[in-house]
Design brief:
By secondary structure, the chain is an alpha/beta fold. The protein is built from 10 helices and 12 strands.
Length: 283
């Protein structure tokens, strides 16, 4: 899969110029942590970028897995994408109501399903609103698309591949959770999970690659990844609590040219729940 853009981020100005063109699909991928008393779909229906469709991270998932919002089968993902009006030739722009958070998960999901023509809106919905750009309300289903997933297995890691990476198979594990959670000093937000991190994993909390809901520039990103001990010239697998903020780090790495960064889909929701996975605490 080749990457059609030099940067995974698109400006609000460019999106505003492109609104309404036939090959553009705008997606609201807002998602809130389970304990947050907000309804992402209801908020989308109240105000959205004109023409946007909604990507439900929990619905577009493997409903046979006990883990949260795991990637669904290619057939299930394709059906959802077609309902969103996505075609093989579509250019997708994803945003969320945070600025930059869950949009990265939708960005990675489309890439993992073989669709490279997808970018994330710089500053998301807050930036769009702050600039006084148009909004609309309601839900109007688009004409069905013709999307067919072509999974890119290189962008996804499962438990077995992560075990192999930790055994010295040449991939760096980079954890996007907060430093306190990584060190085992703070409890996990999901019940039943042990605290700590994978042996040998590195840590760069996802919010440290952002400023006011926007991805940092390339020079500052390079500095922050270097400070975290990440070798940008070697393969990287990102992980987090459930695969959402790991995608933020994957997006940041794409800005630095590391487009092939993989995400551990099960993340700590899988690793921290098992009795046979090693965990360490402290630095």
């Amino acid at each position: 899969m080749s990457d059609p853009f030099p940067d995974p981020i698109v400006s609000t100005a460019e999106l505003a110029e492109r609104l309404g063109t036939d090959d553009l699909v705008v997606i609201d991928a807002t998602w809130f942590m389970p304990a947050t008393p907000r309804d992402a779909r209801a908020e989308y229906a109240e105000q959205q970028i004109p023409g946007a469709v909604f990507f439900d991270i929990d619905e577009i998932s493997d409903d046979e897995s006990v883990l949260p919002h795991m990637l669904p089968s290619p057939a299930v993902f394709s059906a959802h994408a077609r309902r969103m009006g996505v075609n093989p030739e579509s250019e997708i722009v994803v945003y969320d109501a945070h600025g930059l958070f869950s949009a990265a998960r939708a960005w990675w999901s489309f890439r993992a399903m073989g669709h490279a023509a997808v970018r994330v809106l710089d500053g998301g919905l807050p930036a769009w609103i702050a600039e006084g750009r148009p909004l609309e309300a309601g839900e109007r289903p688009p004409a069905p698309g013709r999307f067919e997933a072509r999974p890119d297995a290189g962008l996804v890691r499962d438990l077995a591949r992560v075990r192999a990476a930790l055994a010295g198979r040449g991939e760096q594990l980079l954890d996007a959770r907060s430093r306190a959670r990584f060190l085992g000093e703070a409890p996990e937000p999901r019940p039943g999970l042990r605290s700590g991190h994978m042996p040998g994993a590195l840590n760069l909390p996802f919010d440290e690659v952002l400023e006011t809901g926007r991805l940092l520039d390339a020079a500052e990103l390079r500095r922050r990844f270097a400070n975290a001990g990440v070798d940008l010239g070697s393969p990287i697998v990102t992980t987090c609590g459930s695969g959402v903020t790991a995608s933020v780090l994957a997006l940041a790495l794409a800005r630095l040219g590391a487009w092939r960064t993989a995400v551990y889909d099960g993340s700590w929701s899988e690793w921290g729940a098992r009795a046979d996975t090693p965990i360490v605490t402290g630095s």
